[in-house]
Amino acid sequence: MLSQQTVERVKSTAPFLTSHGPALTAHFYQRLFKNYPDLQHTFNRANQASGRQQLALFSAIGAYVHYLDDLPALTSAVERIAQKHSSVLVQAEHYEVVGQELIGTLGDLGGELITPDIQQAWIEAYQFLANIFITREQAIYTAQANKVGGWQGFRRFIIHDKIMESELIQSFILMPEDGAPVADFLPGQYIGIQLRAAGQDYDAIRQYSLSDTSNSEYYRISVKCEHDGEVSPYLHQLPLQSIINVTPPSGDFYLNLPLQTPIVLLSGGIGQTPLLSMLNSTLKQPLSKDIYYLHGCENGQHHAFAKHLNFQCKAHPKLHRWVWYQSPLANDLKSEDYDFSGLMSLDKVASELPIEQAHFYCCGPTGFMAEMYRQLTSMGVTPDRIHYENFGPHIDANN
């Protein structure tokens, strides 16, 4: 454990971190990529450009300093980050590099505040946290490799089939090139996909949720084509039989089966993919609890899996469904695929939901999840019954 002196010295830098956060994280990444350009194979360049990675790092540093004398409060955040790290194959040696550049950044921007004693305290505090991550991530890698059909590192998969699910969303059936079984996964988890898009100097690794039930033969992911993105447009145009590298299933956002309580699944846009896995996995079992599926998207052209959801509702009386179209098209007006216009507003169906008993699983854009969190807590749902997944760096929905 860290000494009280070390804790106090690190905490004394909190005002500096608060006032210099954006500049500090931007300077850190500039140093990191200047001195170790190959790390751009690992870091998401889109999140760098948008500032999400810098915000996530600043939030993580601030949380660590705040809870330095109450580290159990960070357990869930550590697990979520460790799972993300495992999907991009972060290794122990990466922590040494990142620590070196973080301490260097504090020295560059902290001036006289970063005395030798303060610097040594930060080195100790960083190494303590790094060891937590290294230990947990090694345990994840070992567990992944030891599963039936499991592996460690990258494994080559073939794009066996492609299915257009909506105007922008395409599903990919990925089968292992070696023909051996694939590891099972928990509904809601994701895999990492490594690609190098045309014209790019570095590889890119993206996490894509597994969008169907677990089986031993293949994985299915469903990907929205972001026209200004680096990876998704390239992935969408890859022909059948293309080879891609895949990391094992990861993630701490998942549904435990069999159900112990009713569940409510809330998705916005492409955020439906992990929830679809939860839904399909649940419906494969005898249902003793009700399931409520709420989805919001732009319009009918953007509504993926509508026919599948309608079929499941007819086949399973315990499944209840409501869909919002933000801006319905003329062709949507007589459609049975949606129920409400505008943004998702839970008060329209609150009387139908088991507010006091259910667990709520939410995935979508950050703004959507923040709004769902606000609406749910205002309706009396306790935070321990609200579960959510972020695409990209870890950012809390309740901020």
UniProtKB/TrEMBL annotation:
Its cofactor is [2Fe-2S] cluster; heme b. Keywords: Detoxification, Heme, Iron, Metal-binding, NAD, NADP, Oxidoreductase, Oxygen transport, Transport. It catalyses: 2 nitric oxide + NADH + 2 O2 = 2 nitrate + NAD(+) + H(+); 2 nitric oxide + NADPH + 2 O2 = 2 nitrate + NADP(+) + H(+). One of its GO terms (molecular function) is nitric oxide dioxygenase NAD(P)H activity. Pfam families: FAD_binding_6, Globin, NAD_binding_1. Residues 152-256 form the FAD-binding FR-type domain. InterPro entries: Cbr1-like_FAD-bd_dom, FAD-bd_FR_type, Flavoprot_Pyr_Nucl_cyt_Rdtase, FNR_nucleotide-bd, Globin, Globin-like_sf, Globin/Proto, OxRdtase_FAD/NAD-bd. Residues 1-138 form the Globin domain. Gene3D superfamilies: Globins (1.10.490.10), Nucleotide-binding domain of ferredoxin-NADP reductase (FNR) module (3.40.50.80), Translation factors (2.40.30.10). Its EC number is 1.14.12.17. In the C-terminal section; belongs to the flavoprotein pyridine nucleotide cytochrome reductase family. PANTHER family: FLAVOHEMOPROTEIN (PTHR43396). Is involved in NO detoxification in an aerobic process, termed nitric oxide dioxygenase (NOD) reaction that utilizes O(2) and NAD(P)H to convert NO to nitrate, which protects the bacterium from various noxious nitrogen compounds. Therefore, plays a central role in the inducible response to nitrosative stress. This is nitric oxide dioxygenase. It comes from Motilimonas cestriensis.
